[in-house]
């Protein structure tokens, strides 16, 4: 089941690393990410996309079948999603995932409807579904189903003044399995 847009995005703590459950909550309650994948030549490809979380922890992305995101997954199903906080100072959380392409037309339209809701900040009315169905057909849309297996988090950091009296702290973060329990 696709999850609705959260009323309030999770705010990352600034004094400690995010717990595994907080990392999942951060991903569940945000809506935009940098979608990255390996290319045969050059550096990684990256694009800004809206994503839709599901109740079982997957992340769904709509794209055209002819775009690089869809084509590369056939040869290499590893992707990264750098989930962005939309508030300043912003945090980010990188999600490492195995990805597959879904062609199910109902799922494609459902995801496109949900993306439209995230873009506008309110659900798209059912009357818009025929327009979205036509767009999905015309653009040969598919869904990238991302199954997270690990995360890497970066806390929000910002220098509010340039007089060096204010201290900015940093620490080393690590990759944490997606389904890791919180420490006791």
From TrEMBL:
Which keywords does UniProt give here?
Oxidoreductase
| InterPro entries assigned | F420H2_bilvrd_red/Heme_oxyg, Pyridox_Oxase_N, Split_barrel_FMN-bd
Domain Pyridoxamine 5'-phosphate oxidase N-terminal, residue spans: 20-148
Domain of life, source organism: Bacteria
The record's section on SUPFAM superfamilies has:
FMN-binding split barrel
Q: Which GO terms describe its cellular component?
A: cytosol
| Stored Gene3D superfamilies | Electron Transport, Fmn-binding Protein, Chain A
GO MF terms here are: coenzyme F420 binding; oxidoreductase activity, acting on the CH-CH group of donors
Could you identify this protein by its name?
Pyridoxamine 5'-phosphate oxidase
């Amino acid at each position: 089941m696709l999850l609705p847009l959260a009323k309030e995005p999770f705010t990352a703590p600034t004094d400690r690393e995010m717990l595994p459950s907080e990392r999942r909550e951060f991903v569940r309650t945000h809506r935009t990410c940098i979608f990255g994948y390996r290319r045969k030549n050059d550096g990684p490809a990256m694009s800004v996309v809206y994503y839709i979380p599901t109740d079982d922890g997957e992340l769904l992305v709509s794209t055209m079948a002819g775009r690089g995101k869809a084509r590369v997954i056939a040869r290499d199903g590893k992707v990264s999603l750098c989930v962005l906080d939309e508030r300043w100072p912003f945090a980010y959380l990188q999600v490492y995932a195995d990805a597959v392409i879904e062609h199910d037309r109902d799922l494609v339209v459902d995801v496109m409807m949900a993306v439209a809701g995230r873009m506008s900040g309110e659900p798209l009315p059912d009357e818009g579904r025929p327009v979205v169905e036509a767009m999905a057909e015309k653009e040969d849309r598919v869904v990238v189903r991302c199954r997270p297996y690990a995360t890497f988090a970066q806390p929000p950091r910002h220098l509010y003044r340039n007089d060096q009296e204010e201290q900015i702290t940093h620490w080393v973060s690590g990759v944490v399995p997606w389904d890791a329990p919180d420490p006791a």
